[in-house]
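DM from R.C. (forwarded with permission)

"hey, sorry to bug you on a friday — could you get me a structure for this? deadline for the figure draft is monday and I only need the backbone to look sensible"
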Amino acid sequence: TVRVLEAHCAVGGTWSLSRPDSALYEGLRTNLPKELMAFSTRQFDTSRPSFVRSADVESYLLNFAESNGLMPVINLSSPVTHVRPAPLDERKWAVSWTHDGKSTTEEFDAVVVANGHFNKPLVPGNLENQLPRWNGTWMHSKAYRRPVPFAGQTVLVVGAKSSGADIARELDGVAAEVHVADTDCPLDPSCPTPSGPRELQALGDQYYRVPGTRSGKVFWRSALSELIPDSNAVRFKAGQTLEVDAIIFCTGYQFEFEFFPEGFIDVRDGKRVRSVYNELLHPDYTTLFLAGLNQPIVPFPFFEIQAEWAASMLLHPELLPPSQVRWAQVEALDSRIEQGQLRNEKAHVLDDQWEYLAQLAEQAQLPNLEALGQKFGAHRQLYRYVGGRRSRCPGVPDTYRDDQVSLPEH
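My reply, with the result:
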C-alpha cells in the first residue's frame, strides 16, 4: 500500500498559486525550459513555450498524477503532524496526520519525506535580530506577489539569485529606485552577459547602476551588513548607507522537519541536513528517505531518479553498504566543514547533478545505464546553454525566456 499525504487541497505543491503559503509570485515563469523539466514518462504540452508559467507546471503535475493513476492514493488537505518509529516495532513508522479536524495514525514500512525546501523563510541571523528596531517595512520573497504595492518607493532587494533577480526586474519602472544588495556584487565594474562582459556605471565602491533596465534606476550594491536602528537606513558592506522604504529578503529558505521528534533529524544552520547518506537516506534508518534536499537542480527528473533509487533499496536492501560506511560519508563531510573547506549552507550544492544521478542509477542497478548516461549528457548540455543565456546583472530584461529550445540529440 502506498499513501501520499499532501497538506494542500490540490496537487502541485509549491507550484500552486492557490496554496495559502505559496512561494510563487504572480509573474513567475520558469528559469528552466520545459524540455528539461519533464518526467521521463510524460512531456509538457508541446504547444506551450519553452519557459512556462507556474499554472502550466501545476497543470502538468495534475495531469501526470491523473494519467498515472495516482489520485486514489493521494490524501489532499492532510498535513502530517508526527513521524516516529513505531512504538512496538521500530522497523516500522508511525505517521499521524489530520483531515477535516480528525487525526489519524497509521503504521508504514517506509517513509519518503518530500516536503520541499520552500516552506520556512530564512533571513540571515544578524539582520533578523536587527529587524525589531528598524523602522521600514520588510518581507521575505515568499510573501511577494506583485510589484504594484511598491509603486514610488525606494526598495532594497537582498540577494540576486533567481527570485531576487526576477523581483528586481518586476519592480523596475514601478518603484522609484531598486537597489540590489548581493554578496556576488563585483569588485570591478563588469558584468558577464550572454554577449560578453558589460561595463557597469560605477557610482562608488561596489555600487553600480545596472545598464539596460527599463527605468535606469536599478542599482547593484555590496552585501547588506546592517539595519540602522530607529531609522529607515541600511548600511552596506562597502560602507555606504541608504534610506529605503521597504526591504524584500530574497535570502532563501531553511529546512524544517517539525513532524519528527526534536533532534531526530540533525539540521545545521538551517541549511544542512546532516542526518543523510547519499543526499537521500538516513544513515541509521534504511527505510527513511529525505528527497529533494539539493539545489540548484532540475527538479522533476532529479526526484524521479531519487525515487527509483529509494525503491531499489527497499526491494534490495543488500545493495546498501553497511552502517559504518554510510556514517563515514557523513563524517567526511563533517571534517570538510570543520576544516573550513565547506560551509553548511553549501553542503547540498552538487558540483554536477547528472554525475550524482548517474551514481544513483548505477547503485540501484537501473536498466539501460548507457542510454541514461546519454540522456544526462544531453540535459547537462542544454542546462549549461540556458545558464549561459542569462545575464548576471540583476533587474535586466529576461530575454532568454523568449527562446524556444530543444534537447540535443542523444
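R.C.: lifesaver. DSSP finds eight helices and 23 strands in the chain.
me: no worries. The two ends are 37 Å apart (CA to CA).
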